[in-house]
Design brief:
heterodimer, A: Ubiquitin-like (UB roll), Fumarate Reductase Iron-sulfur Protein, Chain B, domain 2, two-stranded antiparallel sheet, elongated, B: 80% helix
Chain lengths: 234, 120
């Protein structure tokens, strides 16, 4: 029997959060953590969490499993469980709405700040804006982000200043548009990032790289942004 | 609310660059001092070394770098932990006091350093 400890908090009923211990019979199978969460929910329907595609594409089920953020649907028990124990908590640093569901407003506000859409002030061509295969390649490792928030909520700089530091997810997307050959707003984008918080709160500890379920590297993207800011200023 | 008013250059890039440059200067200075100490030095040699203008200038540069490096680093620490978000409005007061104390200590070290290195 797998020992599971789950963070429970229903603000309408509970005065404060508590950890609920549950035993789950996995039948010796190496299930995904989401499967275990579904089994628990079948026993106790009051338990709440987000999930949708259950295959690591939608990014809904980001949770903290034994202290490490990740997507429950693509994390096997063999990777998450230590000493037959699994501790499930909501993503750290964001306000908890109920149980494992967090309020992502701060995260999305930072994402919105980087204007994550193509900006081009030249007249639109008849068919489409073409890009060379080499320029397209520069977007690899950037566009794949699914905004699950595992990275930003594992970053201490984001915990302390979620209103000022854009965070790894937002900055990865900031660089995705800075690196796009079709985007002409580079100067305006960089001008908005040159304060002591937006980018420079990143101290390169790479928690984001460590937890990204898509294997992306926000720290490298942040380094590229720093270099662009440096080139622009000198 | 935490703002950039008390940061070194009010620009993230400027602060970041100053921290890196000051780190390189400090590394060079301590490697220089370390080499002299490892090679063995007595008081007259040590005194002669610090009587030379280049060593005094280098030492002052290192001391100024220490101040800059400490300010940028501690400013980041203070604005992480002593904030309204974590401690309520008390956080703002604690942060301001911590920054003033930090500034006074660094200014004192700088002036004291000038006095020592230039034998005033």
């Amino acid at each position: 029997m797998l020992q599971v400890s789950i963070y429970r908090y229903n603000p309408e009923v509970d005065a404060e959060p508590y950890m609920q211990d549950v035993q789950v019979d996995t039948g010796g199978k190496d299930l995904m953590v989401l499967d275990v969460m579904e089994m628990i929910k079948a026993q106790d329907t009051t338990m709440v969490f987000r999930r949708s595609c259950r295959e690591g594409v939608c990014g809904s089920d980001g949770v903290n499993m034994n202290g490490v953020n990740g997507l429950a649907c693509v994390t096997p028990l063999s990777k998450a469980v230590r000493n037959n124990k699994l501790v499930l908590r909501p993503l750290p640093g964001l306000p908890v709405i109920r149980d494992l569901v967090v309020d992502m407003s701060l995260f999305y506000a930072q994402y919105e700040k980087v204007q994550p859409y193509l900006q081009n002030d030249t007249p639109a061509p008849a068919i489409e804006r073409l890009q060379s295969p080499e320029d397209r390649e520069k977007l690899d490792g950037l566009y794949e982000c699914i905004l699950c928030a595992c990275c930003s909520t594992s970053c201490p700089s984001f915990w302390w200043n979620p209103d000022r530091f854009i965070g790894p997810a937002g900055l990865l997307q900031a660089y995705r548009f800075l690196a796009d050959s079709r985007d002409t707003a580079t100067e305006a984008r960089l001008a908005k990032l040159d304060d002591p918080f937006s980018v420079f709160r990143c101290h390169g500890i790479q928690n984001c790289v460590n937890v990204c379920p898509k294997g992306l590297n926000p720290t490298r993207a942040i380094g590229h942004i720093r270099n662009m800011l440096l080139s622009r200023a000198t | 609310m935490v703002t950039a008013v008390t940061s070194l250059g009010r620009s993230g890039l400027y602060d970041w660059l100053m921290q890196r440059v000051s780190a390189v200067i400090l590394l060079a200075y301590f490697l220089c001092l370390g080499t002299v100490l490892v090679c063995g030095v007595d008081y007259p040699e040590w005194n002669a070394l610090f009587s030379q203008t280049w060593m005094r200038v280098f030492s002052m540069l290192a001391l100024a770098s220490l101040g800059i490096h400490a300010w940028v680093g501690l400013w980041a620490v203070f604005t992480d932990y002593f904030t309204e978000r974590l401690m309520g409005t008390t956080g703002n007061l604690i942060r301001l006091v911590a920054q003033i104390v930090c500034a006074i200590i660094m200014f004192t070290y700088l002036v004291w350093g000038i006095q020592i290195f230039w034998g005033l």
